[in-house]
Amino acid sequence: MDPMAIVERQAQRTDSRILWLVLDGLGDLPRPGDGLTPLSAAATPNLDRLAQEGCCGRFDPVGPGITPGSGPGHLGLFGYDPGKYEIGRGVLSAVGIDFPLRPGDVAARFNFCTVDGEGRISDRRAGRLPTPENQRLVAVLRTIPAPPGVEVFVETESEHRGVLVLRGEGLGHRVSDTDPQRVGAQPLAPTALDRESERTAAIVAEFVAQAGRLLAAEARANMLLLRGFDTLPVIPSLAQRLRLRPVCVATYPMYRGLARLVGMAMPPAPQHLGDLPVAIKTVWAEHDFFFVHVKYTDKAGEDGDFERKRQVIEEVDALLPALLAPGFEVVVVTADHSTPWSFKAHSWHPVPALLWAPGRVFVDGVQAFSEMGCLAGGLGRQPLRFLLAEALAAAGKLAKFGA
C-alpha cells in the first residue's frame, strides 16, 4: 500500500499550525573553485538555527534523475503523486489569474520571446518584459479573429508570461509545446498528439502565425512560445485528503493556480517579500497550513545570477523572525525543484529541506542549512511527497495506525 494512502486515512484535524515555506528553485550545485552554492554562501543565521534545532534531508520532487516542472514539483510538495496527477502549465496559469476556466476549455501558457531575422530564438523571455508592456501586446493579440464556433481568450499573467484559452466543441487538449526551451532554435510547430486534438493544433498554428505578423515590428517581444496545453482536471483537495485548512500566501499566478486546484484559500497576493508576515497574520485565525511561496530564488537561478540568488536567500532569512512570530508548531523550509545558477534551468537534483518542530523531531546535528548539511541530515533522501507526511506527524495531525 502507498504510505500516503495510510496518511490520508489517519489524518486528523488539530489546532497546530504548519508553515510551509517554499523557496522556489532553491537547490543548487557547488561552484567551481570554492565549492559554494548560493545557499551555503548566504549568511542565514535564522535558517541555520532552525536546522540546528530540527532535522534535515534531501527530497526528490518526482524521482531520481527526473527534472520536474513547477507543477509536478508543487504537487509533490503538497503530498500528491506527480505521476498520477499531471496538470498542464496552461491550466495552472489560467486559474492562477482567476480566469473562469470551464471543463473542456484548452489552456496554454505562453511566453513573449525574441527571435532574430532568421526566426531563431535569442531570448525566451523577451528580456523579462514588464507587465504593462505585456498588457499592451495582449491587447494587440486580442484583435486576431477567432475561427467559427470557437472563443479565443488571451490574458496577461505577469512579466513575459500570458495565457491562451480556447473554448468550443470538439477541442482536444493534447497538443505539443512550441517552446524548444533553448535559444538558437526556431519555435516548434504545434502538433496534435491524438486525433481529437488535430483541430486544436490547427487553430493554435494559425493563431501563432497571425501573432508573429502582428508582433514583427516589436524590438523584443516579436513572437510567442506556447507550452503546457491542458484542460481542467479533477483533483481531491487537501481538506478532503488530509483534513487541513490550507491557505496560499504567494504572488505569482501559476503557484496560486496550483494552490487553488488543491483547495487552498486565496487571500489577496502580497506584492513584496516584506509583505509576507502581515499576509500570514491577516489569515492566521482561519487556517492551519500556510503555503508561503518565494519566486525570486528561481528567477535568479534561471538568470544565472549566483549573487542575486544568495541575496534573496539572505532577505528571506532576515524575514524569518517576523514570519515565525505568530507561533507555528511546525516549520518546513524547502523547494519545489533545484535551479542551479550554472544551468539557468530546472534540474533533477534533490532539494534541501529542514523540518523544525521542537520536541517532535530527531535533532540530527546539522549545523547549517545547506545542500551539504542536508546531505548528512536525519531525514535522508526521500520522495518529496513524503515530506508532508513527516510534517503532519510532527504537528500531531496523524492518528496511530493499527492496533
Concise account of the structure shown:
The chain has 403 residues and is an alpha/beta fold.
What's the structural blueprint in terms of helices and strands?
Blueprint: H1 3-10, E1 18-23, H2 38-41, H3 45-53, E2 55-60, H4 70-77, H5 89-96, E3 106-115, E4 121-123, H6 131-141, E5 150-158, E6 161-168, H7 198-215, E7 223-230, H8 238-242, E8 246-249, H9 253-261, H10 276-282, E9 289-294, H11 296-302, H12 306-324, E10 330-334, E11 351-356, H13 371-375, E12 380-383, H14 385-394
Parallel strand pairs: 1-9, 1-10, 2-12, 8-9
Antiparallel strand pairs: 2-11, 3-4, 3-6, 3-7, 5-6, 10-11
Helix pairs in contact: 5-9, 10-12, 11-12
What report would you give on this structure?
The chain has helices spanning 3-10, 38-41, 45-53, 70-77, 89-96, 131-141, 198-215, 238-242, 253-261, 276-282, 296-302, 306-324, 371-375, 385-394, and strands at residues 18-23, 55-60, 106-115, 121-123, 150-158, 161-168, 223-230, 246-249, 289-294, 330-334, 351-356, 380-383. It is α/β, with parallel strands linked by helices and 403 residues long. It has two domains: 3-84 and 236-394, Alkaline Phosphatase, subunit A; 92-230, Alpha-Beta Plaits (2-Layer Sandwich), CATH 3.30.70. The strands form two sheets. A seven-stranded mixed β-sheet has the order 8-9-1-10-11-2-12, sandwiched between helices. Strands 3, 4, 5, 6 and 7 form a five-stranded antiparallel β-sheet that branches. A hairpin with a 5-residue loop joins β3 and β4. It is globular and about 65 Å long. The two termini are 18 Å apart. 50% of the residues are buried.
